[in-house]
Amino acid sequence: MQDLVQLAPPLSNGQVAPESGPLVDTLDRIHDNLRISVTDRCNIRCFYCMPEQGGEFTPVSKILTFGEIMRFLSVAISLGIRKVRLTGGEPLLRPALPDLITQISETPGLTDVALTTNAVLLARMAKPLYAAGLRRLNIHLDTLDRERFRQITRRDDLARVLTGIEAALDAGFRSIKLNAVAIRGVTEADVVPLARFARDRNIEIRYIEFMPLDAQHLWSRERVLLADEMIETLSAEFGPLKAVPDPDPRAPATEYDYADGRGRVGFIASVSRPFCLNCNRLRLTADGKLRYCLFAREETDLRALLASEASETELERAIRSTVWKKWAGHQINSPSFAAPNRPMYSIGG
Ligand code: SAM
Ligand code: SF4
Fold first, then answer.
1. What are the pLDDT digits (tens) for 221-277?
2. Where do the structural domains in the chain lie, given as residue ranges?
3. In whole angstroms, what is the distance from residue 173 CA to residue 167 CA?
4. 118 CA to middle of ligand 1, Å?
5. What is the pLDDT of residues 184-234, one digit of tens each?
6. Edge-to-edge, what's the strand order for the sheet holding 264-268?
7. What's the CA-to-centroid distance between 214 and ligand 1, angstroms?
8. I need a labelling partner for 201 at 20 to 30 A (CA). Which of 99, 173, 191, 336 fits?
């Protein structure tokens, strides 16, 4: 585990990226995990992500087509990418998403395909997504309280989200996780009810510490509800949480079993327990920019390469050199931290 030290800035050691072998950076971190954002639009407006009004969205003509995404993915798989997550913005706003899932599911080489959604449109999409081959869903739910849902998302859609979750269970999804963003002064009262809701449905919940990726720059360290505090709250309610034995060191969530053995809970503690030194992720934004970190201040524009006759070798070089530039980690805990110029919805969470 890393402590709250400042992580080192980008590494420039004068060497060029290797031309073969796994996708490594200068710290020998092997990258096999890819997040693909399929849109930067969203149908709700969580205050820790989107602005209340307006916001700049990429024109549809500049969003990667499914063909371009598949072209990128086939090169990425040849370089060792094995896990893919589709995200956004809200990915279900692309109505043909099941077609993309079908193509991805039929592509050899991947061991894991997952989708992150706010579930507002899941009631009608769950069955087509399952039929397309999707088996893993992360559903975003911060509260079971209608008023607080409205306060957080500036929309009155809690009932649709809950219906979407039941529809996913009915459609056959058995690997569902809930994502709950934890914000001091807002969601303390939701920690226990959400845990109970998830346990009752055999779903794992992950509490995510609020990160400085919101469009309105409302983040401050004081507003982060810390993993340790939530562990204490849940232990007081359900009995002492037990750290899972032999955790995967590359997984972002620290996981715990409930004292009675009924279920598991995770914490994505990017602020209080940064996991950068085990990071294996790359991100492709909806407008075709490749990023080595959520917080990166640079990115590689691949859209023109993907849309043109660029060779696989050119794409491969662009991907390898982006990974090679990866820094040691974000510097949220440093006084010199500067938020990236894109908020979460525009990067893809
Ligand atoms: N719209 C989908 C959703 O909400 O699940 C997918 C995209 S959203 C950007 C992905 C995840 O990012 C969400 O599940 C939410 O929990 C998380 N998220 C958004 N803004 C965040 C922030 N400022 N800090 C921590 N997590 C955040
Ligand atoms: Fe939309 Fe997801 Fe951002 Fe909320 S977190 S505004 S649902 S993209």
1. 999 999 999 999 999 999 999 999 989 888 999 999 999 999 999 999 999 998 888
2. 4-347
3. 9
4. 8
5. 999 999 999 999 999 999 999 999 999 999 999 999 999 999 999 999 999
6. 242-243, 254-257, 264-268, 204-209, 175-182, 136-140, 112-117, 83-87, 33-37, 281-284, 289-291, 300-301
7. 10
8. 99
